[in-house]
Design brief:
With 378 residues, this protein is an all-alpha fold. The chain has a single domain, classed as Up-down Bundle (Rhopdopsin 7-helix transmembrane proteins). It has twelve helices and no strands. It starts with 9 loop residues before the first helix and ends in a 6-residue tail after the last helix. The N terminus and C terminus are likely disordered. It is a multi-pass membrane protein. One of its GO terms (cellular component) is synapse.
């Protein structure tokens, strides 16, 4: 961000300082909680969840390093930490914000694979070399996008356009560079995650059975199977002498004793086949229900990402094109804070969208309740 002649009255300065401090607190504590959950709860360490950990690390640095250094700068309109710290702050700020966006893409791709290639995805459990490679690649790509330019721009141009008491990137008004960078940083990721979301949606829609008035054989089998299980459960409470007769009368038609053996064997064969079909149907329904939850949670995360990133990206490009004369500074400043706000919202989305995180947070805050009710969220 670029602070240009911003001056606030004393009450406004205090209010802004409190609000910014609160944002820092929420961002740091929220993402620290996610990181701590991975340390405490081993069941959380699945392949897909490690990408959420990668996102939490990026968002934690936003709240723990980037925002605190910017607060005195925006309130006083003067950078007081020197040119070296300014370079470091710019590199880290651009790095973690870009890494946060790239992690959203990685999470979206992981969820896309888990839905569309479920069999091969389930083979890989926990962290693998491929998972680590993807996480590291996100940070390398995020650094290469802006880092070298921030460090070397003034040396290549053989001059600096930054005033002594200001801190912003040398390419702040370079429209061509920002257009290319923003395409890689926002537009390409946004198109990618939109594609992943639509693919998941159509995959689920294709697998969702059309409801009809007449039940299918599998549905009837499921109802019969459930009915039998229910009757078996009820028969436990009957008198011992009548239990056998009740079970037989529940499952077998009334036939002469001579043909009972053949009928019983036939029923065993058909019953086994029917149970297998019912099991497959139940498993398919479970996977479909799980994938719907994945799609819903992913859609929420992506929508928040778009709302927080789009204003800043568009205003940054327009601002660079007109050299800051066509976009009001306060509007640009709000869009910049909206970008940072995404890092505070992300850890709040985890417990809302994922049962595994709700369980982990329950273990952290209420360990006694988690032991008494281990399946409270299932």
């Amino acid at each position: 961000a670029l602070s240009e002649g911003t001056q606030f009255s004393a009450p406004v300065t205090v209010l802004l300082a409190i609000l910014m401090g609160f944002l820092v607190l929420v961002t740091v504590l929220g993402n620290a909680l996610v990181i701590l959950a991975f340390v405490v709860d081993k069941s959380l360490r699945t392949q897909g969840n490690f990408f959420f950990l990668n996102l939490a690390l990026a968002d934690f640095l936003v709240g723990g390093f980037c925002i605190p250094l910017y607060i005195p700068y925006i309130l006083t309109d003067e950078w007081k930490f020197g040119k070296g710290v300014c370079k470091l702050w710019l590199v880290v700020d651009y790095l973690v914000c870009t890494a946060s966006g790239f992690n959203i893409v990685l999470i979206s791709f992981d969820r896309f694979v888990s839905v569309t290639r479920a069999v091969s995805y389930r083979v890989q459990k926990g962290i693998t070399k491929t998972t680590v490679a993807k996480m590291v690649t996100v940070w390398i790509a995020a650094f290469l996008l802006y880092g070298p330019a921030i460090i070397s721009w003034e040396y290549i141009a053989q001059q600096s356009i930054i005033p002594e008491n200001k801190c912003y990137a040398e390419f702040h008004y370079n429209w061509y560079f920002l257009m290319i960078a923003s395409t890689i940083e926002f537009f390409t990721p946004f198109i990618s995650v939109t594609y992943f979301n639509l693919s998941i949606y159509f995959n689920i829609r294709k697998r969702t059975p059309v409801r009809r008035e007449s039940s299918s054989p599998a549905q009837k089998g499921c109802e019969l199977f459930c009915c039998k299980k229910k009757r078996e459960h009820v028969s436990v409470f009957t008198k011992r002498g009548d239990e056998k007769n009740e079970k037989v009368s529940s499952f077998t038609p009334s036939k002469p004793a001579v043909g009972r053996l053949g009928t019983h064997n036939l029923q065993n064969i058909s019953g086994t086949t029917q149970k297998a079909e019912v099991a497959n149907t139940a498993a398919s329904r479970f996977r479909l229900s799980r994938d719907k939850k994945i799609a819903k949670s992913l859609a929420i995360v992506v929508c928040i990402f778009a709302v927080c990133w789009a204003p800043y990206t568009l205003l940054m490009i327009i601002r660079a094109g007109c050299h800051g004369r066509c976009i009001h500074h306060d509007l640009y400043e709000v869009s910049f804070w909206l970008l940072w706000l995404n890092s505070a919202i992300n850890p709040i989305l985890y417990p809302l969208c994922h049962i595994s995180f709700r369980k982990a947070f329950l273990k952290l805050f209420c360990p006694a309740k988690a032991k008494i009710h281990p399946n409270v969220f299932t």
